[in-house]
Amino acid sequence: MSPDRPPVGERFRRFRDRLTAEDPVNGAPTDLAAQQPRNPGRRGGRRGGGEELRVPEAAFTSYYGRPILKAPVWKWDIAAYLFTGGLAAGSSLLAAGGQLTGRPALRRAGRVTALAAVSASAVFLVKDLGRPARFHHMLRVAKPTSPMSMGTWILTVYGPAAGVAAIAEAAGRLPRHGLLGLAGRALPSIGHTAGLVAAGTAPALATYTGVLLADTAVPSWHEAYPELPVIFAGSALASGAGVGLLAAPPAQAGPARRMAVAGAALELYGAHRVETRLGLLSEPYRLGRPGRLLRAGRLLTVGGVAGALLGRRSRLVGALSGVALLAASVATRFGIFYGGVASARDPQYTVVPQRERVNARRTGGGSGG
Fold this sequence. Notes:
This protein is mostly helical. The protein has twelve helices and no strands. It is elongated.
């Protein structure tokens, strides 16, 4: 041993003093030595060498305080993708309702918004993928057990149908004679069929992103697998209703008001569940930025529905209600997104549920044996 190097016992005491000085998780002072149980009968150990030391239970951390899970690398554009996909789905359902009930203002607003929203979704998705060819590569196989694969095919079916339906709205502006006149006469029926195809695909488009998030290892997303599709379905309906209330006169906004009520019920129910049912994993949805966003979404949803029902004869109140529902959908999607990211960054949301599951299995096994 080098004469300048302190003995092993001294080095161990210094290491223990460093652990005693500061908690590596919260930065708060702690006393690990005080947590060690003493054995009066063995004050000197086997040869009188001091009190017995035992290893404390592991804290909610990993090496050098790094997270146990790698947090999602997704940024705000994926949260925006969640919103625009739901907006496109809700708008197509609104357009189909206007189409089937003879409300042209609803039909037109829904079709145009659906095309704009799905186009924005494509931009956000390609930005995240890095290269447009990667989307094309996903079409080489259809894997029902993969939400990403199914989502690619859903977008492939939905996008062209929504585009054709929106283009059909321009039929009235085409010349009445010649080749363009022939196209103008054919477009309404083609748009009718395309609009129904888009509406038929819309529920899958609205909910697959919830399944996609729940299929990850992010704790607060994974544990909320029953609620996320419900929240996203409700958010899609509410945002589509917001488009109808904003764009259509009160006389044609009846289907939009009914969509608003249905969407708000689903969204509020699902959000309440993720904030209360998941135990510790509900905490990221209540605290910090996710908590503020979800609370704002809840207030805006309630205000939007109240305005839609109470201000049936006022175009201004209807428009304000539509804006509130659209803002509520944005807040809800971003709140769910940031809540999951927060749960992946804090080790306790991974460690504590794992311990609880292990203890539950041990208890169940012991009682069964």
